[in-house]
Amino acid sequence: MSESVTEAQDAPVESMPRKRRSVFNLQNMLLLVAAIGVWTSWWFKQQDIARLKARIAVMRPIARELEVDDPKKFAVVQLDAHWSDDHQWDVHVPDGKFDLCIATRGIKEANVPIKATARVSIPPGRHRLSLDQVETDKGWRVSVRQDGNEILGVDEPKEWRTSTGSSTVSGYAKSTQLPTEKPMMLMHRRFTKTGANRNVWNIQLEEGVVLWIVPEGQ
After folding, report:
1. CB-based contacts of 28: which residues, under 8 Å, 6+ apart?
2. What are the tens digits of pLDDT across the range 3-37?
3. Where are the domains of the chain?
């Protein structure tokens, strides 16, 4: 009888290792599923980000957003017009001394240098410029606003604008960077009138509005 009890006590227990092995396998499986879930989520996120970046690249020129890749250069983009004579620009002026210039007389072709009617220093940084041309009791007021504040203005008599039309050059539908050695022309408008001769549709006048930024003293 005692020998039977001893043998029973010495017999190995095989059930415990099996339970531990099954628990270990379940934990590994759960960790693997969790890892696959995290990686799959990350992969789908990357695909969404790539699609969004592609859409932004297509929409950015339409949004007319100012981009400055080289802070040592001018940067400019013309904003969407809300009415026929609405002219606004977002500009970046690099470090240095620069003038904002306006001319209302003596205007020639777009590539011909002209003398400024008025000019004012413009500080470095980003600015929103807007050009206003308003008829008053005495004539015309042509003014430029920087970030909402008038910084430049010219008064002209009524005879200044007796034209029947105008020829305007004003680009920068998308953000553009330009070197500072040359003037950054924002707008070149030259008034025109219809000629008496039927063969002459428009006569270019020397009145109009030209707006540009140039190094100080140039």
Report:
1. none
2. 554 454 555 545 555 555 555 577 777 888 888 88
3. 2-63, 74-215
